[in-house]
Amino acid sequence: MTGSTSGLGLVTAAELAIHGAEVTLAVRDTARGEHVATAIRARSAGAKVDVQRLDVADLGAVREFAAGWLGAHSRLDLLINNAGVMAIPRALTADGFEMQFGTNHLGHFALTGLLLPAITATPGARVVSVSSGAHRIGRMRFDDLMGAQKYSAWGAYGQSKLANLLFMSELERRFERAGIAAFSVAAHPGYASTNLQSTSATLNGGGFRHKFYGLGDRVMAQTAEMGALPTLYAATNASVAGGSYIGPSGIGEMRGHPKEVGMSSAARNRDNATQLWLASEELTGVRYLD
Ligand SMILES: NC(=O)c1ccc[n+]([C@@H]2O[C@H](COP(=O)([O-])OP(=O)(O)OC[C@H]3O[C@@H](n4cnc5c(N)ncnc54)[C@H](OP(=O)(O)O)[C@@H]3O)[C@@H](O)[C@H]2O)c1
What we know:
The protein has eleven helices and seven strands. By secondary structure, the protein is α/β, with parallel strands linked by helices. It has one domain: NAD(P)-binding Rossmann-like Domain (Rossmann fold), CATH 3.40.50.720. Strands 3-4-5-6-7 form a five-stranded mixed sheet, with helices on both faces. β1, α2 and β2 form a beta-alpha-beta unit. The longest helix is centred in the middle third of the chain and has 26 residues. It is globular, with a radius of gyration of 18 Å. The mean pLDDT is about 95. Bound molecules: NADP nicotinamide-adenine-dinucleotide phosphate (NAP). NADP nicotinamide-adenine-dinucleotide phosphate binds next to α1, α4 and α7. InterPro entries: NAD(P)-bd_dom_sf (IPR036291), SDR_fam (IPR002347). One of its GO terms (molecular function) is oxidoreductase activity. Belongs to the short-chain dehydrogenases/reductases (SDR) family. Keywords: Oxidoreductase.
């Protein structure tokens, strides 16, 4: 599980561990990860939680994590690609990718490919991509994926979350084509009060943005516990089929209990999905399921 130090990832990892899953908290700050692991063990003495360093915005770290993890495990029932940043000013990852596209999509694309041996060795394995309702504002700008010519913080976030859904669908098609008994699904939490909004406000200069998000959190947001339900449903519900997208059932998919939800037409575009896959292979150097 990536991004399990706070918000939805923390809740999801804790619920899985408390209900008997053996969970790796894949985090960029291992001290915070250990703190989370200790809190989970305090809630459930038998919980099997392990903390490993993973910065998804650094392909070297992704490779190092995957090699270490594969050295210690031969099967992977569930990979939850959840870590993310939202609507931040333009910045670059260790590999020179625009930070939101690099973190939210490319790092997870590489991670999934590098962990494939354990996924293919586990019949019924699931890969869950955590997207967002904001995928609907996204557009794939294949001529400027990194926003080098024109950048908007929300535009880049929307593109990265659209990429999560295109990746999810293409991964599912490639599992099917290769006859691999794994499946790929996606989820989104609606609007949940987590660190996502405050991190965005801080990186954009703070001020009124904290007040704006604070008001939104109080008036509209659901709790992180509720926001994690679609991910948990996508990860564990036996009736969820490959290619499904799970989100909240309330008005505007902002809150409520999980159900299968629709995607934008851009997210269902197969040509875009193929083009994104090829671009992601080229950019990360991780090639799989050709
Ligand atoms: N909250 C919402 O309303 C909402 C709505 C739609 C979609 N989502 C999606 O839900 C997912 C989880 O977000 P959240 O709301 O739980 O936010 P959050 O509380 O800010 O959690 C984000 C997590 O991602 C981790 N992360 C960020 N960059 C990373 C990197 N380079 N390497 C490894 N970990 C990294 C963070 O680690 P640190 O603690 O080290 O920063 C943190 O654990 C995201 O993909 C987000 O796009 C959230």
